[in-house]
Write a structure and sequence with these properties.
It is found in: Endoplasmic reticulum membrane. Pathway: Hormone biosynthesis; Steroid biosynthesis; Plant hormone biosynthesis; brassinosteroid biosynthesis. One of its GO terms (cellular component) is endoplasmic reticulum membrane. Its cofactor is heme. The protein is α+β, with helices and mostly antiparallel strands. About 55% of the residues lie in helices and about 10% in strands. It has a single domain, classed as Cytochrome P450 (Cytochrome p450). It is built from 18 helices and 12 strands. It has a 5-stranded mixed beta sheet. The chain is globular. The chain binds protoporphyrin IX containing FE. Protoporphyrin IX containing FE binds next to helix 5, helix 7, helix 11, helix 12 and helix 18.
């Protein structure tokens, strides 16, 4: 028994230790070599089946017949609440996913949000001119938080935004912590911050509901709050979504969007700094677009940004190497056989994306940053071997918005500044971060505007 306990602890320690090296996938690689692409282990207090096989991952993600439910650590479950889209299942998840996905993917939203993203990017990049040292990981968060709050609830710069920034930061500090809940503990403080956030967001939702009664229902919804409120107003058969439910879900939707996009931007800067050839080609492509737009005195549209092929390849390669969400955790509701591997009822499965992204079988020289590989693969593919945004029933609804934000950021960065990066390294546990927040020194190009 003692030997077994020791074995279990060693697995978790090995798993965590690999997250502090430049090869976080070494934990998976070692076991895959010994036991095959799907193996059992015991990490972070849970017996778990790890899949490093893209075909098995696909079945887990598709989740036909609702065999799998999300399985997050206890602290995350507590903070999300059972009615969060990230945790719920069945018809309500599908309904919410379709509503939010439809809104975030719509060309109308992208048309409207492009200038908001540009403004947020220009505001932040503009402030860099007077800064000695810029910490990219912090600065990019300023851009994406403003955009997120705008998309979800149309809140612009001001007191509400500052309040939400402050409280949200306090809230997410508890996502990965000891699940102990009494005054003074991290989890308790985070739950309190969530209560304050819910109160403020509920006020915004109520005001919007009143305002909506006066507006034209045929026009496009202006944000996620309105999308959910309108759905409540619609059909007679469908039950309305309660205001508390809407407010809670708006906050919970901030979680997957808040850290991921700034980390992708930060890591793009890091990888480009280490790859002068790629940076040069990216700059040329974006300078050409800037020149065209300046010559024609034209504003940029979202399609301009997304149609730059090399820029899209840089983004795909960044997402492949960064593995911001390194995999998803699910729990099986019944016994299921996938490709000859039995996953027993009640067991957790980790569909490991990072193992697939860093596998030589799928990508030649997987550790090298090579945006050109996507010229053959196709930039935006989300096939079994490339799943930074997940797949199937829960495919990230923020996929296109994220790519647009990163494209706009990269465009204005490489056409406005040159930069020198200071020494820093990537840490992969518990989530992907730069050890020193990626410090850089910038020099403005004279044609900055
Ligand atoms: C680079 C940026 C991003 C990455 C890598 C990313 C990744 C992911 C992944 C892997 C999932 C699937 C989780 C699962 O299957 O359990 C997911 C789900 C989700 N993402 Fe993203 N995401 C990003 C940006 C965003 C943004 C900007 C938003 C919001 C505006 C967003 C909203 C969501 C939501 C609401 C879900 C849950 C969908 C559902 O369960 O039905 N994400 N994301």
């Amino acid at each position: 028994m003692a030997k077994f306990k020791l074995e279990i602890q060693r697995e978790t320690l090995d798993f965590i230790a690999s997250g502090y090296t430049s090869r976080p996938v070494s934990f998976m690689d070692k076991r895959r070599f010994l036991y095959g692409k799907v193996f059992k282990t015991h990490i972070l207090g849970t017996p778990i089946i790890v899949s490093t096989d893209p075909d098995v991952n696909k079945v887990v993600l598709q989740n036909h017949g609702n065999v799998f439910i999300p399985a997050y650590p206890k602290s995350i479950r507590e903070l999300l609440g059972e009615h969060s889209i990230l945790q719920m299942n069945g018809n309500l998840q599908k309904r919410l996913h379709a509503l939010i996905g439809g809104f975030l993917r719509s060309p109308q939203l992208k048309t409207r949000i492009t200038s908001d993203i540009e403004n947020a990017v220009k505001r932040t990049l503009g402030s860099w001119q007077h800064m000695q040292l810029i910490h990219v990981q912090e600065e990019t968060k300023k851009i994406t938080f403003d955009v997120l709050v705008k998309v979800l609830m149309s809140v612009g710069p001001g007191e509400d935004l500052n309040f939400m920034k402050r409280e949200f930061e306090e809230f997410i500090k508890g996502l990965i912590c000891l699940p102990i809940k009494f005054p003074g503990t991290r989890l308790y403080k985070s739950l309190k911050a969530k209560e304050r956030l819910v109160k403020r967001v509920k006020k915004i939702v109520e005001e919007r509901k009143l305002g909506m009664e006066k507006t034209d229902e045929k026009s496009m919804a202006s944000d996620a709050v309105e999308v959910l409120l309108r759905d409540s107003e619609e059909g007679n058969e469908k039950q309305s979504l309660p205001l508390d439910f809407i407010s809670g879900n708006i906050i919970e939707m901030m979680i997957p969007g808040e850290e991921t996009v700034p980390m992708a931007m930060t890591l793009a800067v890091k990888f480009l700094s280490d790859s002068p050839g790629a940076l040069h080609q990216l700059m040329e492509e974006n300078m050409e677009l800037k020149k065209q737009k300046t010559d024609l005195c034209e504003d940029y549209s979202w399609t301009d940004y997304l149609s730059l092929p090399f820029t899209q390849n840089v983004i795909s390669e960044t997402l492949r190497l960064a593995n911001i969400i390194n995999g998803v955790w699910r729990k099986a509701l019944k016994d299921i056989d996938i490709k000859g591997h039995l996953i027993p009822k009640g067991w957790c499965v980790l569909a490991s994306f990072i193992s697939v992204h860093m596998d030589e079988e799928n990508y030649e020289n997987p550790y090298s940053f090579n945006p050109w590989r996507w010229e053959k693969l196709g930039a935006c593919v989300n096939n079994n071997n490339f799943t930074p945004f997940g797949g199937g029933q829960r495919l990230c609804p923020g996929l296109e918005l994220s790519r647009l934000e990163i494209s706009i950021f990269l465009h204005h960065l490489v056409t406005s500044y040159r930069w020198v990066t200071q020494e820093d390294e990537i840490i992969y546990f518990p989530t992907v971060k730069m050890k020193r927040k990626l410090p850089i020194k910038v020099t403005p190009l004279c044609n900055y505007r």
